[in-house]
């Protein structure tokens, strides 16, 4: 009887498991369970019968013939788990377990949990010298995660990091100081802060502190600091979908079509034409550049809010440099997000495999050009060591490219803006003719619909009789409370949407087609996404003849009957387990405990002694020894408590549980090791 499985791996975003049960002996019989769709914890509860007989007593093909009872001991039951895949490569193997009948003969019924094992490749014995050798360094970490309440003290200290003054005295910053690699600290910190919605204030605080320490605007955010690692990690998590919608289609095309794009005369293959190759490459760069600079509306809100705070910090610190507000943002979005994703699409889940050498070369050339275009530095051609790159870059030395980059950077770093008027020049985001219904008229007839020229900037949404006229109506962005589709039944008109404002004022608009309607809804939603009073519910139909058509409510101020669609698909909910990330951070603090203690000593020596710093303490950033010492004390206490809980749990776990239970499936190596250790310690085995 195959009962159930837990925690099977999810392959390519899906898991449709089934099991095959085989009795393997002199001959074999394979039976299958049903496929369980869309679950990695399937409940099968299916029974399979195998009959093993001697040839004399039975003569049916489907039964197992054995000459001798001893042969039963050599037989085994094998259960393989598979993911039913619709790929052409066939189903994916998930794991197996093998049960020799020798064990089962000792007790007639045996129910237990088992760990799935990798496939056993039979006895294909190869001479060792037939194969090469492989050198590996494998790091294995195992986290045991308690329930939420265990982590409260440590978690609270971490989540307060954004509010600690100075930020260098916060628990999250201290983690960055003691870890050997900043990346180690950034991964769990970013996940934890994203999970609790604190990532923007935290990154704003550490970025602001880093900008204050930066002397030269040209080196802003260029080092591998905790700030840059945290922003990288946030972009990787929050921006995955954004990359898919912007770059994936064109990267797929580059990988499939294999157009020659080599522009280095030395590396040209026979029969290739340098001019043709340049033109191929220029078209690819142009297309990717356009896709990126037009994608501002899809950029996830969390990224926009971070870019906004980077831009503000940089502009405040280097007031004499008008470009620093752009370079602070482009050093992330171009240099650390788009350029690496083009260069190594496999690392950003844009392609399943590493591209072949020719494609890889094409992507390298595109990535270099996009990176330079995005960096907005003055003398572009001088940025390239290679003369052929400088020549190629002349195509892009036009002002329109720099303007497109600036407009894109303005849009993605203005979504979090609280004071919209602080930008000198409003940025035009979209304009065009649409049909609107008059607001606030009593009679409803076709004459109420008029064609108007609409303009949207990052300050306001306006309409006028025709392009260039004085606006007839202006809605400040902060007054847009929701932008939603409008049901066709309202006015018997297609492609309609509504812009909802304070005091229940609604502007009903008809776009020319469904694509236009979606574009307007997306961009209006984008610019108004951070408004404090955004609605959570709305009416999908209009208020006509004394009632709402959707919910039939009669009062025109009845709250909406349908939840707002709110964000764009780019703001994807991330599947993060906050407790697991806190456990990870605890493990890191525990691992680097000697450094935490050294940092405490450094705080002590700093607050008492004001002379030149001791060598071993100079590696830590300590702005306020008193505050830092306080936080260190809380961290060390929190870590100590958790360490005791873990030790107690380990002791209890092995004493109270049985091998083969769900906590200890058969094949659990840690349990076997524990038993071995215990039997060595005392003569009594468990």
From TrEMBL:
Task: Enumerate the spans annotated as PH domain.
Answer: 427-529
Q: What is this protein called?
A: RASA3 protein
SMART domains cross-referenced by the UniProt entry: BTK (SM00107), C2 (SM00239), PH (SM00233), RasGAP (SM00323)
> From which lineage does this chain's organism come?
Eukaryota, Metazoa, Chordata, Craniata, Vertebrata
- The entry's keywords: GTPase activation, Metal-binding, Repeat, Zinc, Zinc-finger
Name the gene behind this protein: Rasa3
Which part of the chain is the C2 domain? 1-114
PANTHER family, alphabetically?
Answer: RAS GTPASE-ACTIVATING PROTEIN 3 (PTHR10194:SF53), RAS GTPASE-ACTIVATING PROTEINS (PTHR10194)
- Please give one Pfam family short name: RasGAP
Q: This protein's superkingdom?
A: Eukaryota
Record's keyword annotation contains Zinc: yes
Q: Which CDD domains match?
A: C2B_RasA3, PH_GAP1_mammal-like, RasGAP_RASA3
């Amino acid at each position: 009887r195959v009962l159930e499985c837990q925690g099977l791996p999810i392959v390519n975003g899906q898991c449709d498991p089934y099991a095959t049960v085989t009795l393997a002996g002199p001959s074999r019989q394979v039976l299958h369970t049903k496929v369980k769709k869309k679950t990695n914890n399937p409940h099968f509860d299916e029974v399979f019968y195998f009959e093993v007989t001697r040839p004399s007593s039975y003569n049916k093909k489907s039964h197992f013939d054995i000459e001798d009872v001893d042969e039963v001991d050599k037989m085994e039951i094998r259960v393989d788990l598979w993911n039913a895949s619709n790929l052409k490569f066939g189903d994916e193997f998930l794991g197996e377990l093998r049960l020799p009948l020798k064990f089962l003969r000792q007790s007639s019924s045996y129910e237990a949990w088992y760990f799935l094992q990798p496939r056993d490749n039979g006895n294909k014995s190869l001479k060792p010298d037939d194969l090469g050798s492989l050198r590996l360094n494998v790091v294995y970490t195992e986290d045991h995660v308690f329930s939420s309440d265990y982590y409260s003290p440590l978690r609270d200290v971490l989540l307060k990091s954004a509010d600690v003054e100075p930020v260098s005295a916060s628990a999250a910053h201290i983690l960055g100081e003691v870890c050997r690699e900043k990346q180690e600290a950034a991964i769990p910190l970013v996940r934890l802060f994203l999970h609790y919605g604190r990532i923007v204030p935290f990154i704003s605080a550490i970025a602001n502190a880093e900008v204050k320490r930066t002397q030269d605007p040209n080196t802003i955010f260029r080092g591998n600091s905790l700030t840059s690692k945290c922003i990288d990690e946030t972009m990787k998590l929050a921006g995955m979908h954004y990359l898919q919608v912007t770059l994936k289609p064109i990267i797929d095309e580059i990988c499939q079509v294999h157009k020659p794009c080599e522009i280095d005369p030395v590396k040209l293959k026979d029969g290739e034409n340098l001019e043709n190759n340049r033109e191929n490459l220029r078209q690819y760069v142009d297309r990717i550049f356009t896709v990126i600079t037009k994608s501002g509306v899809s950029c996830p809100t969390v990224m926009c809010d971070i870019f906004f705070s980077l831009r503000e910090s940089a502009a405040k610190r280097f007031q004499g440099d008008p470009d620093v507000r752009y370079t602070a943002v482009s050093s992330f979005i171009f240099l650390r997000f788009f350029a690496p994703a083009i260069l190594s699409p496999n690392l950003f889940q844009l392609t399943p495999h590493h591209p072949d050498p020719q494609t890889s070369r094409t992507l390298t050339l595109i990535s270099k050009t996009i990176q330079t275009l995005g960096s907005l530095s003055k003398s572009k051609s001088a940025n390239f060591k290679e003369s052929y790159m400088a020549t190629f870059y002349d195509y892009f030395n036009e002002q329109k490219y720099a303007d497109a980059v600036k407009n894109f950077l303005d849009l993605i770093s203005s979504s979090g803006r609280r004071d919209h008027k602080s930008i000198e020049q409003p940025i035009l985001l979209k304009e065009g003719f649409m049909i609107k219904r008059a607001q606030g008229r009593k009679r409803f007839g076709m004459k109420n619909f008029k064609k108007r020229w609409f303009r949207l900037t990052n300050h306001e949404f306006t309409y006028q009789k025709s392009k260039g006229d004085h606006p007839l109506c202006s809605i400040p962005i902060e007054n847009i409370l929701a932008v939603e589709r409008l049901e066709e039944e309202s006015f018997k008109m297609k492609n309609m949407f509504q812009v909802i404002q304070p005091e229940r004022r609604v502007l009903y608009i008809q776009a020319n087609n469904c694509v236009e309607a979606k574009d307007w809804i997306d961009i209006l939603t984008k610019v108004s996404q951070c408004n404090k009073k955004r609605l959570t519910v709305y009416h999908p139909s209009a208020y006509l003849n004394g009632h709402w058509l959707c919910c039939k409510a009669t009062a025109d101020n009845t709250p909406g009957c349908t939840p707002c669609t709110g964000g764009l698909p780019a703001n994807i909910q991330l599947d993060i387990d906050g407790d697991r990330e806190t456990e990870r951070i605890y493990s890191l603090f525990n691992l680097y405990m000697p450094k935490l203690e050294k940092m405490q000593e450094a705080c002590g020596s700093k607050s008492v002694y004001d002379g030149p710093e001791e060598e071993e303490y100079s590696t830590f950033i300590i702005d306020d020894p008193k505050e830092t010492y306080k936080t260190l004390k809380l961290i060390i206490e929190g870590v100590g408590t958790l360490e005791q809980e873990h030790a107690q749990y380990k002791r209890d776990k092995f004493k109270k549980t049985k091998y083969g239970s769900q906590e200890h499936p058969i094949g659990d190596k840690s349990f076997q090791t524990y038993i071995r250790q215990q039997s060595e310690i005392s003569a009594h085995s468990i």
